[in-house]
Amino acid sequence: MSGVIAQRYARALMNLAVKADAMEEVAAGLDEMAETLEESPLLAAFVEDTKVPPSAKQDAVRDILAKAQAPELVNTFVRYLTAKRRFMLLPEIRDVFHRLADERLGRAQAQVTVAVAMSEAQEKQMQAQLQALSGKQITLAVEVDPEIMGGAITKIGSVVRDGSLRNQLQQIRQSIKEG
Q: CA torsion, points 129, 131, 134, 136, in degrees to nearest 10?
C-alpha cells in the first residue's frame, strides 16, 4: 500500500517540479533529505513517535531543511509530508521521483550481471549497445557473479534479458528432457 501512496506523492511533486522548471534541484533536495532520514534512526523514531506533538515534529523538520538549504519546493513538500504523517515515505518517494525524472529525460538505469569483471572499454561498448537498443541514455551498474558462468544478464526497468551461459545450458537441458 505504501508503494501506491509514494507513487502518488512522487507524481504530484514531479508535476510541481516540471511547472517550476526545477526537476534536477528537486531531485537533489529529495536525495539529501532522504539520506538524512536513512542515516538518522533517531530522527525517524522522533518523527514516528505519536507522543511527540506535531508542532515539535514540524519544528525539527524545518530546522533540518534550513541546514540542508533545500529548494523551496522540497522544503514545502517535506513539511507537508510531515504534517500528513508520511515523512517516513520520503526514501520511497525519492526513488519513484527519480524513475519519473529518468522517464521524462529519456534516461534509464541498466543493471548488468557478468561472470567476470569487464574492462572500461567493454563497459563503454555495452553501454553504447544498450543505448542503441533502448533509445535512452543508459547509466550502467555492473555486478560480477561467477555463477552465471559466462555471458550477461541485463535488466533495464522491468525488461530482463538473460544471455548467461547458465541460462543457455538450462534451456538445452530442458529441450533434451522434453525430447
A: 180
Angle subtended at Cα 120 by Cα 115 and Cα 122, rounded to the nearest 5 degrees: 60
Written as one string, the DSSP assignment of 26-58 is HHHHHHHHHHHHHH-HHHHHHHH-TTS-HHHHH
* Separation of alpha carbons 1 and 8, rounded Å: 11
Sheet with 107-114, strands from edge to edge, namely 137-144, 107-114, 152-156, 159-162
Q: What pLDDT, in 10s, does the model give residues 27-62? A: 999 999 999 889 988 888 898 888 999 999 999 999
pLDDT in tens, 142-158: 999 999 999 999 999 88
140-144: Cβ within 8 A, 24+ apart: 140/110, 140/112, 141/109, 141/110, 141/111, 141/112, 142/112, 142/113, 142/114, 142/117, 142/118, 143/111, 143/112, 143/113, 143/114, 144/113, 144/114, 144/115, 144/116, 144/117
Q: Which domains are seen in the chain, by residue range? A: 2-103 (1.10.520.20), 107-178 (3.40.30)
Q: Are 34 and 90 in contact (CB under 8 A)?
A: yes
Q: CA 134, CA 102: separation in Å to the nearest integer?
A: 13
